[in-house]
Amino acid sequence: MSQEDQEENELRKNFKKTYFQLKKIVRYTYLLFENGEYLDLSGKGNTFQATAFWSGDLKKSAVVQEGKKNATEFVAAQLGLKKQSSYVTNTTNYKKEIAELLSKDNFTDKSKLVMNAFLQIGSVPEMALI
User: Fold this and answer.
1) Fewer beta carbons under 10 A from the terminal one: N or C of the chain?
2) DSSP letter at 42?
3) Strand (E) positions, 2-45?
4) CA proximity to 71, closest of 7, 6, 1
5) Residue 60's pLDDT is what?
6) What pLDDT score does 18 carry?
């Protein structure tokens, strides 16, 4: 799954359709908002990858975040909500699990001897004379 699809899926999963309309633009164009503001997505040799949010309030401007990563967090901030993409949540959880596992690394002198003996048996090649 591409990052584009992942971000779109995250937005759809984290927000109800009543929060906003999601429009995915895949060609070079100009985006004109009802408040008269526009975004130039015409290309001019560059790819434009961003997440834009406009509240619909004619007195407010559209807000643009360069890149598409963390689109859920960006939109949530515009809506005054606390939401995270699943990959952000998963990364946080994975880091906690790793820290917990590392804290359980409490070898004693006896366990070190047993480990070294096991490694000697399993990792030393045997030779046979014929």
Assistant:
1) C
2) -
3) 29-32, 38-41
4) 7
5) 92
6) 74
- 7 or 42: which leads in pLDDT: 7
**Alpha carbon distance 81, 15 (integer Å):** 10
Question: pTM for the complete prediction?
Answer: 0.65
7 three-state secondary structure:
helix
CA quadruple 87, 26, 38, 60: dihedral, nearest 10: -30
The dihedral region occupied by 67, where left means phi > 0, alpha psi between -120 and 50, and beta the remainder, is: left
Given a cut of 80, is residue 129 above it in pLDDT?
A: no
Which position has the token pair 């004379």?
A: 129
Mutual orientation of helices 86-103 and 3-14 as an angle, nearest 10°?
Answer: 100
